[in-house]
Specification:
Largest sheet of chain A: 7 strands, parallel
Strand content of chain A: 5-15%
Order of helices and strands of chain A: HHHHEHEEHHEHHHEHEHEHEHEH
Oligomer: homodimer
Largest interface: A-B, 35 and 35 residues
Distance between the termini of chain A: 28 Å
Shape of chain A: globular
Number of helices of chain A: 15
Helix content of chain A: 40-55%
């Protein structure tokens, strides 16, 4: 099936587009009543994520409802550590939790890259099914958590205010944290390559927590592994490379490094202007972002104004993928999301 | 009583010091067993903060235990809105909460600058008592929350993950938010001036939440009012100006603006290196910071290494006040805090 809407892929290749492509982090999620209905049928979050038919259903919902230019496979960033045996669950209102967090060198030594054809087959099955069901309407993005972000959850056992345990490990036994990041990075590379083989047309890495590190530790424990992923995926299988986007909350101080990583796109949060991000990335990559998601709580007029400001901040010329600076929240109004998506296309039309 | 330790004031004036001065945000707090004992006697957090004798006692505790170069009056950033009638309380494990948050233009119109001699007298009484009890051992810092940070709590009614209400107000009724920030700024200026008159030898403004704004909104709703405070306090009463430090979590993108605000010192979090902060502030101000507080969970050896790295990052020459990039946490080990404080003095000795 030929791709009917290639705006995302053209923008990531920094080629001209008729309108700026737009998709939204967590666009398949609780703010949509149809998602909540499917989620209720699935019984649990992981029940939904591990069922390819239901994952396909919720992936398609926002693409059916809004004029979005991409779909992103419905999954979770923590599927890799779950497949490594850590035992992922989601307590209501509590966020993710691992039954068996990584707490010792022996725990790290036991970790191995999961088998993509068996242990993470449900993700690849979902990718294949979604590609078929999309019928070429928009491209499909596959994704993974970043090595450092996965290590945060694996070591802490859950989310954290201060990441005390993983930062302690970084300072007191950096070699151990590097061993952990090494095996996780190999797993991320295999996971992204498998999603690509299953049909993902763009790939994205979410580095949610790298930005909580001091600069010397970010470079050592997050940037190094993001770069390895970008470089290793670059040595793909001869054909055209599937574009890779590196998103990081708080990654603004490192845009020059990220632009030189080998990735095709850099996703930024809203604390840096796109004008500045564009200058600092110096035309080496496309830039994805970066409206503050809280903008969606404001009136439609204000949303349209801020969309226009975001487009103006990037300025003319190719290489912009419109997105939020972070994910949609459950209490956001789907009609406000529609206003945002339509405004991106309206204001960016040539 | 002559001041026996003027390292802080000399560093803020960018004059040479024999050792880099060090104090720690939230140094009077729950990580100290003697604090927890006084807090238990007070019954509640506000019972402690509003009792000058007990506030004096907990202010002095860290100065007695560690070789700190400054004391900071024990208080809360939310005393001003409380005195404006919003009804502050602290639920256990919940953080601050206002009984009567600001939810309408009528609510904003009712706000007035509190009377410092009556409604906030307990703070000035604490400042006077602490100055007397310190006996000139180290200087005393007075402080306030920043206008935008106070507005966040006043509008949301409590802490927030996303500051949806205040950001909605910024976009949908910016004039209303400016009216709110205007009266709060006047109150902050009066409050800092009153603490100075009561004996505070340095002043600090905590802009905890300004960094959550997009750049154009930060400049309009946070930076503008920080600058007004710095400029207005500059027009003091003829004598030597009491130095002002502007701290902001996530303020790294705005260091050039903050250095030009008129403040004597800029406090930064750990996501920017002091080397970069120093270059960007171009010698106009002293810089305070910026060790990641989570460093204190690591071993004494690692703490010493990171202290040395922080000092080296600032480099030689005057104008550095050592601090954390954010406050101490209740589960930190006082002996690790001692290692940090002593290492700052040891490594910075000429």
């Amino acid at each position: 099936m030929p791709l009917q809407n290639d705006r995302l892929l053209r923008a990531l290749a920094r080629q001209p587009v008729d309108r700026t492509p737009v998709w939204l982090m967590r666009q398949a999620g609780r703010f949509l009543p149809e998602y909540r209905a499917t989620r209720a049928r699935a019984g649990s979050f992981m029940g939904l994520a591990t069922n390819p038919e239901l994952a396909c259903e919720v992936t398609l919902q926002p693409v059916q409802r809004f004029a979005l230019d991409a779909a992103i496979v419905f999954s979770d960033i923590l599927t890799i550590p779950d497949a490594m045996g850590l035992g992922l669950s989601f307590e209501t209102g509590e966020g993710p939790r691992f039954a068996r967090p990584v707490r010792s060198n022996a725990d790290i030594a036991k970790l191995a890259v999961p088998d993509m054809d068996t242990e993470l087959r449900y993700v690849m099955d979902a990718v294949r099914l979604i590609r078929r069901e999309l019928g070429g309407k928009v491209p499909l993005i596959g994704f993974s958590g970043s090595p450092f972000t996965l290590a945060c959850y694996m070591v802490e056992g859950s989310g954290s205010d201060n990441f005390a345990r993983v930062k302690m490990l970084a300072l007191d036994d950096p070699a151990a944290l590097h061993r952990l990041l090494d095996v996780v990075s190999e797993a991320v590379i295999a996971y992204l390559a498998a999603q690509r083989a299953a049909g993902a047309q763009a790939l994205m890495v979410f580095d949610t927590w790298g930005g909580t590190l001091a600069p010397h530790l970010y470079r050592e424990f997050s940037l190094r592994y993001l770069t390895r992923i970008a470089q290793t995926l670059a040595r793909g299988e001869g054909s055209e490379r599937t574009p890779l986007i590196l998103f990081g909350k708080g990654n603004a101080p490192y845009l020059e490094d990220l632009a030189a990583s080998g990735a095709e796109g850099i996703g930024v949060d809203w604390t840096v202007s796109l004008a500045e991000a564009r200058v600092r990335c110096a035309g080496k990559v496309a830039i994805q972002g970066n409206l503050d998601p809280s903008t969606l709580y404001a009136s439609p007029d204000a949303i349209r104004r801020e969309v226009r400001r975001t487009l103006d901040s990037y300025g003319p010329g190719p290489g912009h993928v419109f997105n939020l600076g972070h994910g949609l929240a459950p209490d956001m109004d789907p009609e406000h999301v529609r206003v945002l998506v339509d405004a991106v296309h309206e204001f960016s039309a040539q």
